[in-house]
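Colleagues,

For the teaching module next term, I've prepared a clean inverse folding example: a structure given as tokens, and then the sequence designed for it. I'd like students to try predicting residues themselves before seeing the answer, so please don't circulate the second half yet.
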């Protein structure tokens, strides 16, 4: 006599995954430049246009995010990762699943759903605090910059840590 799952192995897994997905999900629309509170994270996000990137901006990357404002469109959303999300990491040869990218960066599974994804109608613009997408990268032809800053709450508040954002 052997042990068996009451409704089959997939039924048990499916229920656990569904509960886990709903628990950490957040999504906020960003209709334009401004400051927004992200209820799901207890953090704030600020978006503003600049005529040029500040001196030494490359050294500050990935936080704050500076991207080509003409390559993105509003409304944007900031949300948790979704199954099947893909992006083209800046400096990488091609696109990659966000889940695989998190694995490569050694970001623990429980922290992944708390890392904000910035997207517009075209797709992912950046995994905030981790890596921007190639599509919105600043180039010599860039005329306007969109600066995006994420302001997390104090460490430990709502279970949110700098490690969840920066993956270190």
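(Answer key — instructors only)
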């Amino acid at each position: 006599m052997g042990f068996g799952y009451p409704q089959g192995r997939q039924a048990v897994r499916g229920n656990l995954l569904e509960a886990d997905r709903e628990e950490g999900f957040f999504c906020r629309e960003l209709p334009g430049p401004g400051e927004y509170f992200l209820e799901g994270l207890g953090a704030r996000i600020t978006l503003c246009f600049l005529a040029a990137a500040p001196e030494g901006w490359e050294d500050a990357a990935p936080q704050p995010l500076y991207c080509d404002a003409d390559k993105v469109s509003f409304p944007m959303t900031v949300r948790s990762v979704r199954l099947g999300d893909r992006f083209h990491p800046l400096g990488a040869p091609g696109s990659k699943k966000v889940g695989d990218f998190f694995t490569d960066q050694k970001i623990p599974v429980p922290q992944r759903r708390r890392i904000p994804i910035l997207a517009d109608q075209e797709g992912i613009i950046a995994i905030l605090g981790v890596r921007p997408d190639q599509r919105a990268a600043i180039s010599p032809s860039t005329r306007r910059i969109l600066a995006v800053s994420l302001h997390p709450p104090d460490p430990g508040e709502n279970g949110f840590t700098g490690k969840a954002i920066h993956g270190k």
